[in-house]
Write a structure and sequence with these properties.
11 helices; flat
Length: about 280
Amino acid sequence: MKGEYYRMDFNAWDEGTVELPLEQEAAYLRLCHQMYRMSGPIPNSPKLLRSIFRCGHNKAQALLRKLIAAKKITLNDDGFLNQTRVSRELQARQELAIARGISGRTGGLVSGVRRGGDSSKNIESPSSLHRVSIESPSSLTEVTRRNPLNGHDPPEPIADALRSRREERRGEEKESSLRSPKKAENEHGPPNRGSRLDAAWQPSSSDTEFAAEFGWEPARIAMTVDRFRDYWLSSAGKAAVKRDWSAAWRNWVRKDVEDRNLNEPKPLRRDPYGRNY
């Protein structure tokens, strides 16, 4: 399985953790790793903390309290642990992925228009667009102006194609706006409208991996999937309509983990004379 990487400024890390003992710094780093692994805040679960810190309940809780007191970790109102820098990095990673997707689609459109042009012109390599800036690929005209194909052809044909496409899209939007509101709603539905769970729903590979992160065995995951599906198929009302069933699954897993942790028997403590209390 290919490992996952993230950027780390070790100088900033050393400066930011200079006041932490080595044990707290290690716990802090492992919490950050788990947040990157789960792509967001993690539940404040005693069982999960014991697994991350590889220690007992009391020790894990003490480490967490010290990190919160040092303002390295924050506890959200919904009971999740968060770290500001990790959240910013994850947001930047998501924006970068979106920008790269836009850049890739832009490059494909440029290549398609160029191939449809004058075949007598020599194109040495379509890779000349590889330096397109992903920070602001706002328009194909700007991309072509900064990075013309090997500098041989002017950007006008591509700009004309883009303007033609924009005009066509405006015409489609205008035609759609002239429809009756009832018909438009029936055809497309209101914005952000959810749906009920499909009877044949199965979790995706990422959904299954999310549950496995908590140490769930395949048999437990399969049983929970059946329970999750039967529960929502038998439910009625607005609560049974979701916009993102993968998110609903992740919340279900987190709630199950938290409920089981609350119901776990606490270990007996012994005094020096061997008596339980």
